[in-house]
Automatic annotation (TrEMBL):
Enzyme class per UniProt: lyase
Source lineage: Bacteria, Pseudomonadati, Pseudomonadota, Gammaproteobacteria, Pseudomonadales
Organism: Halopseudomonas salina
Cofactor(s) demanded: pyridoxal 5'-phosphate
Keyword presence, Lyase: yes
Catalytic activity line of the entry: 4-amino-4-deoxychorismate = 4-aminobenzoate + pyruvate + H(+)
Oligomeric form and interacting partners: Homodimer.
Record protein name field: Aminodeoxychorismate lyase
Length: 281
């Protein structure tokens, strides 16, 4: 039975392999195996924020998955759509393309490029101003160094983690790996002020290496802040004096609570927030 709630669903403007259409083959390996990558990008005044960081992560993903792609065509399509969109969100999905049944990689694979444009995100303004509470997710991220850091299409762990809460109290969920290390949030990365330095979790085993995370590591360092990338246990998070999460769409959200632990919004979190706003507003 069809879902009546989908009757009025508006499809985003979509290009598949440079053509305006919204269908892909049922034999596409992205559908069958999650064999591919994606990037979700903020568009401001017709330009893609942090484009160089997005392209760098895409190249790392292509190398990890042993995929070839026409990067010139990708950049051209993204810039063209961004110019048409003005303000909003672009999502670029790159799959390995059509293949036969089975896991073996086709010898002559032709990647499928899917570019979609969306209206600006509707995240509450209050999240950035007054901070958010984190939900402590029980879903654990599997440790797999071969896929760590890249934005591959296999996101079921994040889907399951995000399904754990439905209230309006929590805006994000904190996720650990199977070893108990703090890794990230369901759609963003974490920074915590531990002692006098910022700490962000090491993502060499699992998790997504967000482009806003990379940008803030660079910019905070240039601003004289010390940023350490290392394994983070749960007690380190609880002992921190300031905490924020970040991604390339909303920038920085101060974190004010997790279960029974509370944090204040400090001046150094506000500094990180201003650095993020420089590229997404």
């Amino acid at each position: 039975m069809a879902d009546p709630s989908l009757d009025n669903l508006q499809l985003p403007q979509t290009m598949v392999n440079g053509q305006q259409r919204s269908e892909v083959s049922v034999l596409d390996r992205g559908l069958a195996y999650g064999d591919g990558l994606f990037e979700t990008m903020r568009v401001v005044d017709g330009r893609i924020a942090l484009l160089d960081y997005h392209l760098a992560r895409l190249r790392r993903g292509l190398l990890a998955l042993k995929m070839d792609a026409d990067q010139t065509a990708i950049i051209s399509e993204l810039n063209a759509l961004a110019g048409q969109l003005g303000d909003g969100v672009l999502k670029m999905t790159l799959t390995r393309g059509i293949g036969k049944r089975g896991y073996g990689i086709p010898a002559q694979a032709q990647p499928t490029r899917i570019c979609q444009s969306f209206a600006p995100t509707g995240y509450p303004i209050e999240n950035a101003r007054t901070g958010i509470r984190l939900f402590e997710c029980q879903t654990r991220l599997a440790v797999q160094p071969l896929l760590a850091g890249i934005k591959h299409l296999n996101r079921l762990e994040q889907v399951l983690a995000r399904s754990e809460w439905s209230d309006s109290i929590h805006a994000e969920g904190m996720v650990r790996d199977t070893l108990g290390n703090v890794i990230e949030c369901t759609m963003s990365n974490l920074f915590m002020l531990h002692g006098e330095r910022w700490v962000t979790p090491d993502l060499s085993g699992c998790g997504v290496q967000g482009v806003m995370r990379d940008y803030l590591i660079d910019r905070l360092g240039q601003a004289g802040e010390s940023v350490e990338v290392r394994k983070v246990d749960f007690s380190t998070l609880l002992e921190s004096t300031e905490v924020f999460c970040c991604n390339s769409l909303y920038g920085v959200w101060p974190v004010i609570g997790l279960a029974d632990t509370s944090w204040s919004i400090g001046s150094r979190t506000r500094q990180a927030q201003r650095l993020a706003e420089q590229v997404i507003k």
